[in-house]
Design goal:
The complex is a heterodimer of chains A (about 220) and B (about 230). Chain A has a single domain, classed as Glutaconate Coenzyme A-transferase. In chain A, the strands form two sheets. Chain A has a ten-stranded mixed β-sheet, sandwiched between helices. A three-stranded mixed β-sheet of chain A has the order 7-6-9, with no helix packed on it. Chain A is an alpha/beta fold and about 220 residues long. Chain A has four helices and 13 strands. Helix content of chain A is about 15%, strand content about 25%. In chain A, helix 2 packs parallel to helix 3. Chain B has a single domain, classed as Glutaconate Coenzyme A-transferase. Chain B is of the alpha/beta class and about 230 residues long. Chain B is built from six helices and twelve strands. The chains are: A alpha/beta (about 220), B alpha/beta (about 230). At the A-B interface, helix 2 and helix 3 of A face helix 4, helix 5 and helix 6 of B.
Chain lengths: ~220, ~230
């Protein structure tokens, strides 16, 4: 089997984002999706800290400390971009104006529960940022994560053991092994990577998976 | 004649007392009123409750205020970062209390305070640990959590330009929490890069009208800014 690397995963997510979408890319792995959006498709990127129309990274030496994304990295603004304050920014999120939020995850449950903000460890300092708002507010929540933990345990689980970010909020999961839709009747496998059988994916995942009848 | 310009940051913060609740604008470093925070450290007020998205980065601004042990409690959404060492140390030592609030709920609670709203229902955090013990309600088939406004004694914010009536415009993503904090605090103090004559700001483009602003101090900018 040939696992997807981080850039291949990002490219796979990017392929599914249609022209005209308003999209928020979470901190970390999801940020990579911006680099793979198909050229010629107009897709407007939102960031929690009050910006629509994020452009590429600025060249070295041209960073502007007043122009950053939610990950506090320097960005640029496309022609047509706009700035607004935080309450408006989260009004856009909570008010169901964003078409997609792409989020990282520790765990996703069969029912679409998402855990991505806190390990719950006694000595861990919790930090939530905008994760709960995005999980609850975006029209579609796409999760992007490695299929297995470093110990080889499935991150797709029957029930999240980490504290929840949102209940029943995930629509689709992109991993380095598969693309899986979360539906009311369970998990539907849309795609698997080359050389991986449905049965092997089922074994690795440890939760019931359904075969999708038609390819996406 | 209305004149909200103050000669110095010291003068603008002279009346802050121990135990005050202070909103500090900024998202990370963007929009953080560092000159006002430096003046607050020098001013000496203690046991402060701070409202900010983060809990300080590196060694300046809010991080320096925490390092100086002036903060009793902090309300924020994202305290833990690679460079939040002053907060991490104080939190682990039990020196300050943390109220963790989802970022959109933080923004809306601040907005609600400025807009005279008594409480509001938000879907964010329903079914999570951050909604534990809170009132919930199902409205039209969707579940919501009841949240209350956050009021403050002071807001310390940064803007790009101001006139003497207190009308403000900001610069890029440095705007973030400043407009809603300006409305939520009893006394809003603004650090600005440039002061202009009345009428110089385009009335169609004023972001924060002067009614929300009390004191303005002109401070030069040290930020690296692209054209």
């Amino acid at each position: 089997m040939k696992k997807l690397d981080r850039n291949q995963m990002a490219a796979r997510v990017a392929r599914d984002i249609p022209e005209g979408s308003y999209v928020n890319l979470g901190i970390g792995l999801p940020t990579l999706v911006a680099d793979h959006l198909p050229k010629g498709r107009e897709i407007i990127l939102h960031s929690e800290n009050g910006v629509l129309g994020i452009g590429p990274k600025p060249p070295a030496g041209l960073e502007d400390e007043d122009l950053i994304n939610a990950g506090k990295e320097p960005v640029t603004l496309l022609a047509g971009g706009a700035y607004f304050h935080h309450a408006d920014s989260f009004g856009m999120i909570r008010g169901r104006h964003l078409d997609f939020a792409v989020l990282g995850a520790f765990q996703v449950a069969v029912n679409g529960d998402l855990a991505n903000w806190h390990t719950g460890g006694a000595d861990a300092i919790p930090a939530v940022g905008g994760a709960m708002d995005l999980a609850t507010g975006a029209k579609k929540v796409l999760v992007m994560m490695e299929h297995l933990t470093k110990k080889g345990e499935s991150k797709i689980v029957e029930r999240c053991t980490y504290p929840l970010t949102g209940a029943r909020c995930v629509n689709r999961i992109y991993t380095d092994l598969a693309v899986i839709d979360v539906k009311p009747d369970g998990l539907h496998v849309v795609e698997v990577v080359d050389g991986l059988s449905f049965e092997e994916l089922q074994r690795l995942s440890g939760v019931p998976l359904k075969r999708m009848l038609t390819a996406a | 004649m209305i004149d909200k310009f103050f000669a110095s940051t010291e003068a603008a913060l002279a009346d802050i007392r121990d135990g005050a609740t202070i909103m500090i604008g900024g998202f990370g470093g963007a929009g953080m009123a560092v000159a006002l925070i430096d003046a607050l450290i020098a001013q000496g007020a203690r046991a402060l409750t701070i409202v900010n998205n983060n809990a300080g980065n590196c060694d300046t601004g809010l991080a320096a205020l925490i390092a100086a042990k002036r903060v009793r409690k902090i309300l924020c959404s994202f305290p833990r970062q690679a460079d939040s060492w002053h907060f991490d140390k104080a939190y682990r030592a039990g020196e300050l209390e943390l109220e963790l609030v989802p970022q959109g709920t933080l923004a809306e609670r601040i907005r609600a305070a400025g807009a005279g709203i008594g409480a509001f229902y938000t879907p964010t955090a329903f079914g999570t640990d951050l909604a534990k013990g809170k009132e919930t309600r199902r409205i039209d088939g969707r579940d919501y959590v009841l949240e209350y406004p956050i009021h403050a004694d002071y807001a310390l914010i940064k803007a790009e330009r101001a006139d003497r009536w207190g009308n403000l415009v900001y610069r890029k993503t440095a705007r973030n929490f400043a407009p809603i904090m300006a409305a939520a605090a009893k006394c809003t103090v603004v650090q600005v890069r440039e002061t202009v004559d009345l009428g110089a700001l385009d009335p169609e483009a004023i972001v924060t009208p002067g009614i929300f602003v009390n004191r303005i101090v002109k401070v030069g900018s040290s930020l690296r800014q692209a054209a």
